[in-house]
Amino acid sequence: MNTASLSLPSVTVRPLAGPDELGLFLGLSYALDAELGADLEQGRRRPGWLWVAVQGDRLLARLAWWSRPGAAEPLLLDILDVDGTLPAEDRLAVGEHLLRTAMSAVLRDGAPIPEYTRFVPSGWRDRPEVRRAVEDRMAIAGRTGARLFVERLRLNRSPGLPVPAPTGRLVFRTPRGEEELTGLMARVLEGTLDAHSVHDLTTMTAQEAAAAQYADELARYRSPRDWWRVATLPDGDPVGFVVPAHNGYNPIIAYLAVLPEHRGRGYVDEILAEGTRVLTAQNVPRIRASTDLGNAPMAAAFARAGYVDFEREINMTWS
After folding, report:
1. Which of 297, 299, 303, 305 is nearest to 191 (CA)?
2. Which residue of 55, 249, 259, 301 is most buried, as measured by CB atoms within 10 A?
3. Is 20 buried (19+), middle (13-18) or exposed (0-12) by CB count in 10 A?
4. Handedness of CA 236, 238, 239, 242 (dihedral sign)
5. What tens digit of pLDDT does each residue of 6-40 get?
6. CA distance 4 to 164
């Protein structure tokens, strides 16, 4: 984009020179701001992954990528903000210029473009100012070729809520190693309503998709694996599983599933209750979870268990 087309002259786009410039980056605000300092210290972010568009001392727009500690490449674009006082076309033009410039400098040619993810209020469509801000960011990403992939519910369970006692219909035990769990993960992909899993199955077998998710996500949690539970019938026949974990920010229900042949019998409530009991026993301040907006059965199970839809997550992709 030619910045001469802007009504704002002399726009400079650049990465942060170092952690000392974090104050500049914080000139716009977002829910993740409080985590940025620790993320930089722990290697989840780098100054070269935090970019700004400035006019003199004025911060016009900013973006940041995130990854796992020590990773060579960014995994997610999770911050993209523009000064809301700018005229509409300038907001989009500055944001697009910033995103295109940063992507060109940071991302390797031919490598997959990291997904864009944004946390937004649950009722964001009903609040004009919030909706405008969300749609501005989506439009900026869209100008560079991104499309909406999925909207997800972000869920929170507060401490002090009662957790149902086991009914005795199911028996819970820890998984018998990676092979058993990935085998169950592959089986539950039949009929999945999860958008990311559906997409994975267009390029991988169910077993390959399960192995990739285990390696890329579950195996990286540093919380104890003896929190994980396989649910079985009293005769030992597996029904499903739940993976309570801590992702470095919050205690979470990382994965919850019922095998296809056992769906529709209310087992999901008992499996979720077991995962909730495991985390509650750790005296955690809250439990977080998420599921696709379109996954109505899973969303209903979380609601019955006291998990409140407190936020949404917008996912956009370039593929």
Report:
1. 297
2. 301
3. exposed
4. positive
5. 667 799 999 999 999 999 999 999 999 999 999 99
6. 63
Structure tokens at 7: 């009504």
Backbone φ, ψ for residue 232 (5° rounding): -130, 160
* Degrees to nearest 5, angle at CA 232 with 221 and 266: 95
Separation in Å, CA 75 to CA 40, 107, 216: 15, 10, 11
Percent composition of the chain: helix, strand, coil (DSSP 3-state, to 5):
40, 25, 35
Alpha-carbon distance of 113 to 75, in angstroms, equals: 9
Q: How confident is the model at residue 78 (pLDDT cuts 50, 70, 90)?
A: very high
103 by DSSP, 3-state: which?
Answer: helix
Q: State how far Cα 272 lies from the chain centre.
A: 20
302 close to 172: Cβ distance less than 8 angstroms: no
For the 3-145 domain, the top CATH level (class) is alpha beta
Mean pLDDT of 97-103: 98
Q: How far apart are CA 299 and CA 41, in angstroms?
A: 35
Residue range 164-180, pLDDT digits in tens: 999 999 999 999 999 99
Q: What angle do CA 170, 216, 143 make, to 5 degrees?
A: 120
CB 211: neighbour CB atoms within 10 A? 18
What homologous superfamily is domain 171-317 in, according to CATH? Answer: Gcn5-related N-acetyltransferase (GNAT) (3.40.630.30)
Report pTM. 0.91
Phi, psi (rounded to 5 degrees) for 6: -80, 150
Looking at the DSSP assignment, which residues form a beta bridge with residue 290?
Answer: 154
- pLDDT per position as a tens digit, 285-314: 999 999 999 999 999 999 999 999 999 999
